[in-house]
Amino acid sequence: MTNELLAQTSSLPTTDLTTLRQYLLDLLCQLAYKEGDFVLSSGQRSSYYINGKEVTLHPQGALAIGRLLLSLLPEDTQAVAGLTLGADPIVSAVSVVSAYQNRPIPALIIRKEAKGHGTRAYIEGPTLPEGAKVVVLEDVVTTGKSAMKAVERLRDAGYEVDRVISLVDRQQGGAEFYQSVGLEFQAVFTIEDLQQNWARSHS
């Protein structure tokens, strides 16, 4: 981490959200964003790759993410949830920060396959009342299909889900897909934000 970024870390719990957002953008560009020739999990080739876990599992990154995403949640949010593995550190960060801000919001983790023993559940975390309002979180959205699995599992469990929030939108159809199925979608950053910031820091 650069000295400039390090200097900001002590104020992360209290700094204003605009400064915090720029800090997180710089951290994503420094640690998570890479340019080159990559094959994505979808099989598509790409000239860049974003490894969100480099930041979501980073102590200062997790704190910044927790504060920023918590600020975007509707007031009536009763839980945050996401599909394992990419969303696990994000929902955990938001939940921990929510406790510090006196707005405790539990986290749920959605398995890709049902647990093979015990309750055989798809959803890990506290049991919520029927109809509880849950927001699905994601690190990077491409087509939107992975977060949709979480939405479907949560709805099957009787929860109300009408919103997905992502750290980064690759702008490859995810936003349009969510709109087509009636979900609100919000991203903290677009891929353009990352690329412009990355280019400035490498010029």
TrEMBL record:
Domain Phosphoribosyltransferase: 107-173
TM helices/strands, residue ranges: none
Positions bound to 5-phospho-alpha-D-ribose 1-diphosphate: 111-112, 115, 117, 138-146
Assembly and interaction partners: Homodimer.
Record's protein name: Orotate phosphoribosyltransferase
Protein's UniProt keywords contain Transferase: yes
Gene Ontology molecular function, alphabetical: magnesium ion binding; orotate phosphoribosyltransferase activity
Primary role: Catalyzes the transfer of a ribosyl phosphate group from 5-phosphoribose 1-diphosphate to orotate, leading to the formation of orotidine monophosphate (OMP).
Sorted UniProt keywords: Glycosyltransferase, Magnesium, Pyrimidine biosynthesis, Transferase
InterPro entries attached to this UniProt entry: OPRT, Or_phspho_trans_dom, PRTase-like, PRTase_dom
Family: Belongs to the purine/pyrimidine phosphoribosyltransferase family. PyrE subfamily.
Catalytic reaction(s) noted: orotidine 5'-phosphate + diphosphate = orotate + 5-phospho-alpha-D-ribose 1-diphosphate
Binding, orotate: 142, 170
A Pfam family reported for this protein in Swiss-Prot or TrEMBL: UPRTase
HAMAP family reported for this sequence: PyrE
UniProt cross-references to SUPFAM superfamilies, sorted A to Z: PRTase-like
Domain of life: Bacteria
Protein's pathway: Pyrimidine metabolism; UMP biosynthesis via de novo pathway; UMP from orotate: step 1/2
Record EC number: 2.4.2.10
Names of the cofactor(s): Mg(2+)
